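Why does this matter for the project? Reviewers at the last site visit asked to see concrete outputs rather than summary tables. In response, this paragraph embeds two records directly. Each consists of the residue sequence and, immediately after it, the corresponding structure tokens. Nothing has been edited or filtered.
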Amino acid sequence: MPPPADASLDCLVIGGGPAGLTAAIYLARFRRQVLVVDSGTPRAAWIPASHNIPFFAEGIAGPEILRRDRETVRRYGVQVEAGTVATLERDPQGFTAAMRSPGGGSRRIRARRLLLATGAVDVEPDLPDLPDAIRRGLVRYCPICDGYESRERRIAVIGHGERGLGEALFIARTYSNDVTLLTLGCPMDLDEKQRAALAEHQVKVVEQPIEGLDVKDGRIAALRGGGREHRFDLLYSALGLHYRSELAVALGAEHDERGALRVDAHNQTTVKGLYAAGDIVRGLDQIVVAMAHAAVAATHIHNRCELPTEDEADS
């Protein structure tokens, strides 16, 4: 439902991806006053096609998911406002958000509760022609999402350390027996157990720097110095995520070493009245999980809306 002018919202949702929009739909159906602030940069927009969302066995593209979500939100009269939230303040009555619009304007928004669905950003390899390769589905970021469609193909994983090693082994033991880990020049200090795991799953490791990508005939080549190349059917980047959790962290919300927020069973952070949903939350980064976060958080927000944000003890 659209908020009355100059009124305090029941909930401000920051983020217009699947998590934020799902929360807005639930809150609108609970007949709560809700506003969504959307920076317009959801991670879901990069998805060429997702096949592991129920009811879309043939696959659905990220932009189409977002279009349908926004259309549903509009049906309930929820206002989605373009902009970013620069700072948050908290007091016993709720939250104040300082919002900046794309045109340079700014205003302050009051809300009893606040849900962060600002998501995360993939750390991308510094390689030329990367956006085009992503659009063509030759460079991907989530084998949980689309590894099944990549089964039995020749796959490279860009990464290093525990994350790169873990993703290469995940793909090798689940989807393909032809996996190469490209460490981009970072040496791997492997112990005996890790070397044994790589040998067991026949994962090859290339520690030399990669100077570029070349796409030919629907395949991708990782280029090394001297014109040498490694050719693959597709490449997964496993360089990690930057979590957009700065607003919550500034309020004192607990997070892990990477910046992902810790939440309780209601998706409430350690700051009372501040909720989080989607990739920003510590755990499995999946659209269906993000939507579940949003449903849980929105229901708890509705049930607690008349209560003060301070000292909300669960009995």
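We now turn to the second protein, recorded in exactly the same manner.
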Amino acid sequence: MRQDDRDPFDEALRRAREAAYRPGEFVEQESFMGAGEIRALAEQAGVGPGVSVLDLCCGVAGPGRFIARELGCTYVGVDASESAVGIARERAGGLPCRFEVGQVPPLPDGTFDVVLLLETMLAFPEKQTLFDAVAHALPAGGRFAFTVEEGEPLTPAEQRSMPDADTVWLAPLPELRDLLAYSGFVVRRQEDLSSSHRATAEALTAAYEADGDEIASQIGRRALDELLAAHRLWSDWLASGRVRKLALVAERQ
């Protein structure tokens, strides 16, 4: 079963995800970020009332709906998964949100004050193309807020051990900064989230294992085993320093 079909995964993993996060930290995110980290990054990027936000690879848009509700921005989410966007639309209620189905890049038409990319940077092999597209969607002074898994590219052995390794494109921080600068960005804020995300990866692994039989009955044993294998690798890599998890805010010049 493919994770692009979000409905069964959303239903199967919800109970475990709710158990893994501290009270108030689960907002239907599909990642290691807690609600406090999501809000802090959005605030650092200047998200607030009257600010227009474009959220790339939003998934079911738990974080997007959270910041729209908490910070009063206007919000557009885009994701390639039609089922994920369907869930996001259904749960948005009366929030000032709209959603589009589409690959990124290209980006939706229009100019936005802030572009978000949470927990999905590693899926882009061509990061320069992405950064150029984001710069085109922002005015001078617009902010690009994102998280990134920073480190050297996977070795062949690491690729063999990581499920869906064709979606895991690490890059070292100096290279990322050079690419951002080439697209006209200056990094204004940087925070290391490695420790908290390692703890979350471990908590999610334990919760998925505890609820494993029920999860496997909905998404299949192979999908569960791959999910557990990936979470264990991220936990090990974050603990050892093989990968760092960073949150950055870059301003378009």
